[in-house]
Structures are given as C-alpha cells and as structure tokens.
C-alpha cells in the first residue's frame, strides 16, 4: 500500500505565527497520514518546533486551522491535543527530576479522568507498555538518577500511557549515542507497524533518510519542499534546507602536522565531583598541544561539563593536576586562570557568556574591565573602552546599532561573535570552546569555525567540546573520546574510523 | 523609533505616583472626605512658608539614605531589608560619640560621629554579606531578623549605659551643641545633612557606573553565572555591597541624631527602613530617582502632617498613600512591558505585510 | 507544674507559627514565595478583632480574618503570578500598605482610646477524657480550637501534598513548571490558587494573636512573627512535618522568653530575651546548608510566545 492511499490523520493549513522580533511560520501546510513516519527537516530556527508546538496546543497560531481525522479542531492546550491522541516528546524533557518515573507518568496523565492515582496500577501499566515496545525502565527509579536515554523512554511512556497514536518527536537523537539511536528507531518502526504515526523533527540528514517515509523541508518558516523517501538524496535535501549545495563534510583546514608540538595543557589523573557527589571526572589524562584543535567527542553527560568547569576554576578539583605551560592550575581561581591566558566560550551564551542587559562594549570588556587601559585606579576609562569596542566591532563585523546597545537586542550569531571576540582576546595560550555553534544558523556557524581555525593557526591550543560529531570531525587535529569521566582513546584525524568512535562513545574499547 | 519610546516610558513613574494618589483619593471618598480638598491642603501646607519647605528637605534626608541602602544592594540582586537596624546602629554609634567626645572641637566631633555611624552601620550590614558569602544564607531573612536584634541592642543601651541623667525615660541626654549639625537655613530644620545626602547619592551613582567595583556589582546583579565565568568573585561583592548599603543606612543615623533629634529616643523613626524600600522602588533603584522620590515623600509627610490637623483624616493615612503609590509603581512596570511587547508585535506584522506585497 | 505550664504555653504560641509555616510550605511548593505574609498576619489580626468586637462572636471574627487574608492574597497573587512582577518587591509594597491600612482603619473605627479595647480571647476547649490525663492532658488537650486546628492541619497538608493528585501537581509545579504545563495544566492557575489558600490560612494565623490569645489589637501585635513562620518553612525543608517541628521549637522559644520576662529572672537583660526567637532564626538560617529548595522558587512562569 503506497503512502498515497492511507488516511490523513492530521492536516494543518495556512498556519502563521508571530513572535516578538520574528515571523516564525508563514502560511504553512502539512499533512500527516496514518501509519507513516514523517520527517520535518530544517535548520535551527526554521520553525519546525514551533509548528509542532502549535499542533500540541502549547502555542496558538495567529492564522490557520487544524483538522484531525477530517474534523476541524481547536487545540487550546496540550490537554486537548492529548485527548485527540497527539503526544509530544520534547527536546528538553518535561520531567520532574526529583520525582520517580511513576509519579512523572501519573503527572503526564493527570488531566485524564480515567487515569488512576494508584502507584501500583500505574507501575504495572508502565511495565506492560515497556515490554510491548522494548522500552523497559524501572518505574520506581528517581528520574534524575536515570541516564539520558532512559529519561527519554519515560517521556515516550508518558505519551503512550495517554494513548497517543500520533507521536511528535523533537530532535530525539540529540542526546543519544549511535547505538541508542538505533534502539529508538526500532521502537519507531514497531510503533508505525501498529498503525500509528510519528512526526520526526530533525536537522540530521542521514537519520532522516534512514527512518522517514516522507520528508517535509522547512526554511525560514516556510515549506520549501515535500518529497517521499525513495526520491530523496542528501544533496537534494541539503539544497532545500539551506538554499544552496552543501559540500561534503570537508576537512576545513590543511593537516597541521608540520612544526614541533609543545604541550600547552597537561591534565594528570584528574578527579572532579559532580553535583550529585559522584566522580564525574574519574582519573582523566589529557594533553593539548599549542597550535592544534583538540576535539572531545562524547555523549553529553559524560563529564565534559565538569571537566571544563574544573579547568576554569568553577568547580573544585578532588585529585590530580592541571598544568598550563608548566604553571599549576589546580587550585586556581577563575580570575587567575583568565590572567594566565585561558579563554572560555561557554555552552549557554545567555546564561554564562553574556550579561544580556549590559551593552556590547561592556560585554566585550567583561573579563578585563578592571585592568589598564580600561580602568585606572579603579575608575573606568570610558574613552578607552569605547575605542577598543569600536575596533573589535569592526574587525569582527558585529552587527549592532551602537556599541552602547544592550547585547540582548543582537541576533544569536552576533551575540556569539561578541563572546568569541572577547575570549580570543583573553586566550593568549588556550581557548576552551563548548558547543560554540549551538543554535546558530549556517552562516554564523561557518564564521565561528573559521575563527577557531584562525586561533589555532596563530599558535593557540583549542579544546573543542561538541555533541555534533560532524563539527568535531571537520575541525579537529586530534580527537579524544570521553566516556564516564575518562578519556578512552585519542586519535589523530587521519586515523578516524566512524564505527570505532561510535563504539568508544558507548564505552566499548577494543574491537570485538 | 527608540527615542520616542524613551520619553513616554521614563515618565511612567510619574504616572504611577498620580495613579497611586488617585487610588488613595478614592479611599478618602469612601470615608467621606473630599480628596481634592485634602490634596490641596497638603500642597498648600507643604509650601506654606520657608519653614515647611525646608522641612521637606529635612524629612527627605534620611529617606535618601535608606532608599540608597536598599537600592544599592538591589543593583547586585541582593535584598537588604535590614536598613532599619543598620540605621539604629548608626544612631547608637553617633550618639555615643556625641556624648563621650563632647569636649572636642565641632568639626572634629562631627567628623568622628559621621565616620562612626558610617562604619558601624557598614559593619553591621557586612555581617549579613559575610553570612551569605560564607554560608550561602538567605540574606532576605537574615537582614529582616538583624533589625530586631539591633532594636534589642538599642533598647538595652538606651535603658542602660546611655540613659539620660534623670533616668526617667528610655532616652539619652540631649547632646552638646558642638555635636549639632549646622543649619543651612536658620530658624528651620534644614541642616547640612542634606548636602551630605546629595553627595552620598552622587557617590552611589559614581560607584555603580563609573568604577570597576560598580561594574562588578552590576554584573553580579544582572547575571551571576556570567560574572563567575568572567572571574568576578561574587562573595567579595556580597560583603562589600552589604557594607556600603549598611553604611548608607548608618549615615541616616548620624543625620537624624545630630541634625534633628539631638538625642536618641527609644523607638524613634520606626518606619524609615521600610519607607526606604518604597523610595527605592519608586526611584527605580537609581540615585537620582531615589532623591526625587524622597523629596516627594517628604512633601507628602510635611503637608500631610498639617493637613491632618485641619481635616478629619488620621495621620496614619499617609502610610496608605505610600503603599498605594508603591503598588501602582509595580503595576506600571507590568503595563510598560506589555506595551512594548504589543508594539513589537505590531511592528513585525507591518514589516511582514510589506515583504509579501 | 512550671514545666507543664511552659509546655502548654509553648504549644499555644506555636499555633500561629505552625499554621503560617504550613501555609507557606503549601505555596512555596508551587514556586511562589508569599512575601506578604507579615502584612496578611497583621490584617488577619485586625479583621479578627474587629469582627469579634462588633458581633461578640469569635466565629465571625475568624471568618473575617480568613476572608481578609484571601482578599489580600488575591492582590498579591494576581500581581506576582499573572502580571509576573517581582515577588519580594510586590510583597514589601503590600506589607507597607497593610501596616497603614490596619492602623488607619483601627483608628477610624475606635479612635485612639486611653486603654486598648479588649475582647474575650478564645476559650479553652477541654477535650473530654483526654484532658484528664495527667501531664499530657494539661499540655495538649486544654488548648483553644485554633491549636487543635493547627495540629489537624499538619496531617491534612501532609496528606494533601503526598497522597493526592493535587499534591503531585503542586509539588511538580515548583520543581518543574514546564512538566506541568506540558501535561496540560495551567501553571498560573495552580499557583494563584495556592496563594489564595495560603493567604487564607495566614489570615487565620494572624487572628490567633488578637482574638485567640491577647484579646486586643495593636499595631505591633505581630512583631515579625509572620517572618518567623516564613523562616520556619525554609528551615523545615518545605515539608509539613519539618514545619511542625520548627513551629514547636519557636513556640517554646517564644513561651520561654515570656516566662523569663514575667518571672523577673534577671540573668539576661529583658531586651535580649525578647530577641531570642529572632536570634534563633538567624542561627538556623546560617546553619542549614543543604536545602531542598523547590527548583523554581521565586521564578515567574513565562511561556514563550503564548498567545
């Protein structure tokens, strides 16, 4: 039976949505058929999540209508969506970390009058669903003790418990290893076989091509293409997503094997405790050379955050040593580490990188305002600050009305430029970059990559941490895989083998 | 586009004051008074003669200090609710110096009193900052409780070692003439403490926006995480902010004891700390706004105290007026945000329509 | 005999603290701090006194106190939950306003009498049989009805929070409001209702001081005890049992300081004896390092782009 013949279970027509500052969706039409996996493909910010949140009742559209099973419906809240059999697995899990799995499932179904409050009954139901779909999980485990792929299972079970037959999954593989992704895909296939539908939101071409029956591409809030899987190719999809051809994941710089490599950062037997008291970094050894980009590959939650925080003095070190150019950093305060020439591009620029209500120039001097020439005897030298800021704004082409504008009004890409410009200035020897292109469009991502390469070529060491394997692969001279707080293996770029990396990320060392 | 928004929006505090007064006017109606008459009386009395006008400034002085105390800490996202206690400690310091060092020449004596109230108030406040830095204690609760402890200390000292020679009432002796702050306008109550208050307000502005310390304070206040990543030691900021904040409140002790009361009476000026919070809110935690708000409340108090005698409104109605104004300021923030959001949305819809056409 | 009297008095003094702390636990579990607590206590005391004075009925007084608390709570709740304004700033404004209103409307009704007006405080309700038990009977079962209510409330709130659907929603709202939103429940509605309930209880707690114990009303009658109830919520780790224990401890401190004062025991100066509860709060605030604070306490819930 071809996709054409199946019934249409959900139809969205003419959906338009405004947010302050942006037109998120522009007269979008979408049809979902029974028993199909539909992929929604697009760049960050294309409107995929927004469209699905409208379907799930979390947002109201400014224009347009929705039909479910042929009838026009008014979805005012997730409650309505769930009643219609629509469930959503969010990118950021909507779980209560301090509660158990059962409590979370009960909460998820709390507006359903048929739902029971009995912990035992619900736990049994969870076990049953888990067995049916291969989603086993301990109902009485505390959610914050579960690894990420288990937490995702809880999210899915919540929706299944509510009787969802249309499952929206928003970037579900962002937090999974290649192996867990395969398990997720198996579930999706089983789910589809039972006659249900899945809407799979992603920006990863290869996964979409593996799992989808039909692919819809969004760009800047508009549908730019709809294509069944048989007719789709990576090139075609990339072209639709971006508007032009994407080269393959090229190596972005020539091999930098020439010249002597001096170690600039030495980490010996490092042990760092995480928030829950466990050893998040567990006897980690690592060496970073000057003039290299050293990428750390790994699923998030394996100690990367604790490692970089410890390197920057933001988290105490339990054991072990850190040396920068021979100087011990281990008991260092952040201020000292900055003065020693270490820069840090944080994962969350709004939370850790910028003071949004301060101006562009204030953010540019955020790490140096109390030193000459920006301060003399404790008094700010506004002239010098303005001069410096004007220079930097020009050389980095930061789009801002004035240096005085609060940085909150800049676009994401320009905000990141401010962070990077500041950190490059600070990083005389070492630059730590954590998820530096998260949430950025293609143009800004490209710009950031060029800057990182430039930093490397000028002799700095760059420690790059990213969950986007493609980013690590295209930029790094050497790649280390981190698993449960330890470096399992360090590989030169030319020796990289995708299968090996995938296995290492799962903790499997050595071939079997 | 941004400049016209600016003009409309900076006048918002003024609107809120008007709305607040309007609300309390409604309440007056409800109680059978004519609000227009009452407000007219307040204005007339406040500006009736030099003495009253001078009194407005005299009443505003301690409010400026306690307003600055709360506002300064607020800039670091810290809540100093203990200005009342820091004020009392400043009073104690100043009156003690006035009593025990009365033999010193005037300038020296006043300087010592000033410094002592500043330092003692600051130290009392910094205890809170230290507790927050060291124990991550909740400064809201701590500062609240510290006022009650300060009251206990003050009552103990006033009834004990500092008590007046007669020993009749819980108050000190009147301090020597050499400890009185000179008047700016003779035969009024406006004393040179006003100049001190204005200088301190200017200093607060200077510290916050022109110094590296102020930069750190504002950064910590606006985004504590980013400040840490930038190498700013927030614990040092907690202590220094609470010291400065407490010092501001302590200075109010100097001006009230040496400038107005010339002695220390148990339980005097009991609302000055809380009113300071109101002033700071009305003044948007900005030194200039605080000074203006303090003057406004000073006028209300002066005019109100007299209007009360001719009309039937009880003096405690002033507290209601203050509260109403504060609430309408808060609501005005909300209205301002809403207006900006709606304007943004409209602008976007316009822009996208033009694009399509 | 003295010890029994002291303990009986302690239970009495802990009543409003327990009620207030339980109310605060209830609302803070949804992520909202009821900063207006001191003002609501005060207005509850005023309303209770006025209601009882003019009707002679304690019941009317208590109802008036609950109604007043709810009314003030609705203002606070509306501004902080729906208008998303800052909780501490709004609460402080309301506390200032409440102090002004309470004093003003007392003067309006009664003028400034030479001696404060009084009413009969709530009578003791001796529970039959149980009150005859030696020692324990004297301490526990010869209290007034509000005290019995406060004990019942401990169990009711515990049961509500941990054994019901509503309780799960309440706890989840403070721990992760997004999860509650995704489940299709209106977060603001949960919070607002919690503020209303909490404020009603706080009004009741305030009335204890005027008509349950002292039998009069003055502007200082609460004297910061609303804040102590607020602190007890923190120190009791947002748990009803913890709140009860904390309330009891502070009730003992309160009773002890009164007894020391009236007995003429002059080891510690009077002024500091009065300050004991506050000093205790300071010590307790500093020593509790590990709090299980509701994750989203104090943070207004803002949905992106909603409507």
Could you explain the architecture of this structure?
The complex is a heterotrimer of chains A (512), B (357) and C (307). Chain A contains 17 helices and 22 strands. With 512 residues, chain A is α/β, with parallel strands linked by helices. Chain A folds into two domains: 3-242, P-loop containing nucleotide triphosphate hydrolases (Rossmann fold, 3-Layer(aba) Sandwich), CATH 3.40.50.300; 263-341 and 427-505, P-loop containing nucleotide triphosphate hydrolases (Rossmann fold), CATH 3.40.50. Chain A has a six-stranded mixed beta sheet with strand order 6-7-8-3-9-10, sandwiched between helices. A six-stranded mixed beta sheet of chain A has the order 16-19-20-13-21-22. Chain A is globular. Chain A starts with 7 loop residues before the first strand and ends in a 7-residue tail after the last helix. Chain B has a domain at 60-288. Helices cover 76% and strands 0% of the residues of chain B. The model of chain B is unreliable at 1-5 (pLDDT under 50). Chain C is mostly helical. Chain C has one domain (2-111, 132-287): ABC transporter involved in vitamin B12 uptake, BtuC. Chain C has helices at 2-28, 37-55, 58-82, 87-110, 136-140, 145-163, 165-175, 177-182, 187-214, 225-235, 240-263, 270-274, 276-287, and strands at 125-126, 142-143. In chain C, strands 1-2 form a two-stranded antiparallel ribbon. In chain C, 53% of the residues are buried. The model of chain C has no long low-confidence stretch (mean pLDDT 85). The interface between A and C is medium-sized, with 33 and 24 residues.
């Amino acid at each position: 039976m071809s996709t054409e013949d199946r019934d249409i279970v959900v139809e969205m027509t003419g959906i338009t949505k405004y947010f302050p500052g942006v037109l998120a969706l522009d007269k979008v039409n979408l049809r979902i058929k029974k028993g199909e996996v539909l992929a929604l493909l697009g760049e960050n910010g294309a409107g995929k999540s927004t469209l699905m949140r409208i379907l799930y009742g979390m947002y109201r559209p400014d224009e347009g209508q929705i039909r479910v099973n042929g009838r026009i419906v008014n979805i005012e809240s997730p409650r309505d969506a769930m009643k219609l059999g629509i469930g959503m697995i969010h990118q950021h899990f909507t779980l209560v970390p301090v509660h158990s799995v059962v409590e979370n499932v009960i909460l998820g179904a709390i507006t359903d009058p048929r739902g029971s409050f009995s912990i035992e009954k619900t736990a049994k139901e969870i076990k049953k669903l888990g067995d049916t779909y291969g989603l086993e999980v301990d109902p009485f485990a505390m959610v914050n003790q579960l690894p990420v792929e288990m937490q995702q299972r809880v999210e899915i079970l919540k929706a299944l418990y509510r009787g969802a037959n249309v499952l929206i999954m928003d970037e579900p593989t962002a937090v999974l290893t290649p192996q867990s992704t395969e398990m997720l895909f198996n579930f999706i296939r089983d789910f589809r076989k039972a006659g249900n539908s899945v809407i799979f939101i992603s920006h990863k071409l290869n996964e979409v091509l593996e799992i989808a029956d039909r692919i819809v591409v969004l760009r800047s809030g508009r549908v730019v293409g709809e294509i069944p899987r048989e007719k789709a190719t990576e090139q075609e999809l990339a072209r639709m997503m971006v508007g032009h051809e994407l080269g393959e994941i090229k190596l972005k710089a020539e091999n930098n094997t020439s010249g002597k490599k001096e170690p600039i950062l030495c980490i010996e037997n490092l042990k760092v405790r995480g928030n829950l008291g466990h050893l998040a970094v567990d006897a980690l050894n690592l060496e970073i050379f000057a003039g290299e980009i050293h990428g750390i590959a790994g699923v998030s939650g394996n100690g990367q955050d604790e490692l970089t925080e410890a390197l920057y003095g933001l988290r105490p070190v339990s054991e072990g040593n850190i040396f920068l150019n021979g100087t011990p950093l281990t008991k260092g305060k952040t201020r000292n580490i900055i003065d020693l020439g270490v820069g840090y591009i944080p994962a969350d620029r709004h939370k850790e990188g910028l003071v949004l209500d301060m101006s562009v120039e204030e953010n540019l001097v955020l790490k140096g305002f109390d030193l000459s020439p920006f301060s003399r005897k404790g008094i700010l030298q506004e002239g010098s600050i303005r001069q410096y800021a004007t220079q930097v704004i020009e050389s980095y082409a930061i789009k801002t009305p004035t240096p005085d504008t609060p940085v909150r009004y800049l676009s994401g890409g320009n905000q990141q430029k401010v962070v990077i410009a500041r950190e490059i200035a600070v990083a005389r020897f070492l630059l730590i970059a954590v998820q530096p292109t998260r949430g950025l469009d293609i143009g800004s991502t490209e710009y950031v990559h060029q800057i990182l390469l430039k930093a490397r070529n000028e002799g700095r060491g760059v420690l790059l941490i990213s969950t986007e394997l493609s980013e690590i692969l295209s930029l790094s001279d050497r790649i280390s895989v981190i698993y449960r707080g330890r470096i399992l293996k360090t590989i030169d770029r030319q020796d990289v083998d995708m299968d090996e990396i995938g296995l290492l990320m799962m903790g499997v060392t050595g071939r079997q | 586009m941004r400049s016209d928004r600016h003009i409309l929006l900076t006048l918002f505090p003024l609107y809120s004051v008007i709305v607040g007064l309007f609300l309390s006017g409604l309440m007056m109606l409800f109680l059978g008074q004519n609000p227009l008459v009452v407000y007219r009386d307040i204005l007339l009395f406040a500006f009736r003669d030099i003495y009253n006008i001078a009194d407005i400034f005299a009443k505003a002085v301690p409010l400026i200090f306690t307003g600055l105390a709360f506002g300064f800490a607020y800039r670091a996202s810290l809540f100093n609710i203990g200005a009342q206690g820091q004020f009392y400690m400043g009073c104690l310091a100043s009156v003690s110096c006035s009593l025990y060092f009365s033999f010193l020449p005037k300038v020296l004596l006043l300087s010592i009193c000033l410094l002592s109230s500043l330092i003692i108030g600051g130290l009392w406040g910094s205890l809170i900052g230290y507790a927050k830095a060291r124990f991550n204690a909740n400064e809201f609760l701590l500062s609240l409780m510290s006022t009650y402890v300060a009251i206990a200390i003050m009552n103990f000292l006033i009834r004990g070692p500092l008590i007046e020679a007669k020993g009749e009432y819980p108050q000190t002796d009147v301090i020597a003439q050499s400890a009185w702050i000179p008047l700016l306008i003779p035969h009024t109550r406006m004393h040179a403490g006003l100049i001190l208050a204005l200088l301190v307000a200017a200093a607060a502005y200077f510290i916050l926006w022109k110094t590296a310390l102020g930069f750190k304070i504002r950064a910590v206040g606006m985004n504590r995480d980013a400040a840490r990543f930038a190498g700013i030691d927030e614990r040092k900021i907690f202590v220094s902010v609470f010291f400065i904040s407490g010092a501001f409140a302590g200075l109010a002790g100097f001006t009230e004891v040496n400038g107005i009361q010339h002695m220390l009476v148990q339980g005097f000026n009991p609302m000055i700390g809380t009113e300071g919070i109101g002033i700071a809110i009305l003044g948007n935690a900005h030194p200039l706004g605080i000074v203006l708000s303090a003057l406004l409340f000073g006028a209300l108090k002066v005019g109100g105290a007299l209007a009360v005698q001719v009309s039937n409104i009880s003096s405690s109605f002033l507290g209601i007026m203050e509260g109403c104004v504060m609430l309408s300021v808060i609501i005005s923030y909300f209205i301002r945000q809403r207006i900006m959001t709606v304007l943004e949305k409209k602008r976007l819809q316009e822009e996208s329509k033009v694009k399509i056409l | 005999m003295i010890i029994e009297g002291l303990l009986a008095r302690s239970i009495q003094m802990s009543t409003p603290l327990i009620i207030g702390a339980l109310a605060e636990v209830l609302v803070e579990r949804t992520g909202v701090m009821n900063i207006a607590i001191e003002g609501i206590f005060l207005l509850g005391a005023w309303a209770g006194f006025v209601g009882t004075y003019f009707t002679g009925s304690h019941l009317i007084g208590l109802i008036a106190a609950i109604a007043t608390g709810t009314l003030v709570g609705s203002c606070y709740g509306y501004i902080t939950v729906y208008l998303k304004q800052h909780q501490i700033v709004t609460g402080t404004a309301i506390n200032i306003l409440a102090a002004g209103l309470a004093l003003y409307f007392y003067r309006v009704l009664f003028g400034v009498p030479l001696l404060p007006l009084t009413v009969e405080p709530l009578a003791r309700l001796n529970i039959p049989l149980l009150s005859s038990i030696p020692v324990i009977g004297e301490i526990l079962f010869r209290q007034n009805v509000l005290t019995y209510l406060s004990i019942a409330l401990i169990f009711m709130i515990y049961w509500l929070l941990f054994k019901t659907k509503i309780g799960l929603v309440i706890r989840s709202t403070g721990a992760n409001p997004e999860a509650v939103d995704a489940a299709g429940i209106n977060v603001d509605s949960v919070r607002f209702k919690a503020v209303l309930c909490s404020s009603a209880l706080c009004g009741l707690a305030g009335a204890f001081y005027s008509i349950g114990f002292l039998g009069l009303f003055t502007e200082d009658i609460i004297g910061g005890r609303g804040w102590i109830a607020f602190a007890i919520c923190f120190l009791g780790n947002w748990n009803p049992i913890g709140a009860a224990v904390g309330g009891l401890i502070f009730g003992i401190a309160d009773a002890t300081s009164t007894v020391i004062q009236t007995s003429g025991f002059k080891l510690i100066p009077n002024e500091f004896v009065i300050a004991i509860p506050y000093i205790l709060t300071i010590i307790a605030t500093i020593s509790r390092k590990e709090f299980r604070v509701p994750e989203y306490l104090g943070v207004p819930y803002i949905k992106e782009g909603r409507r």
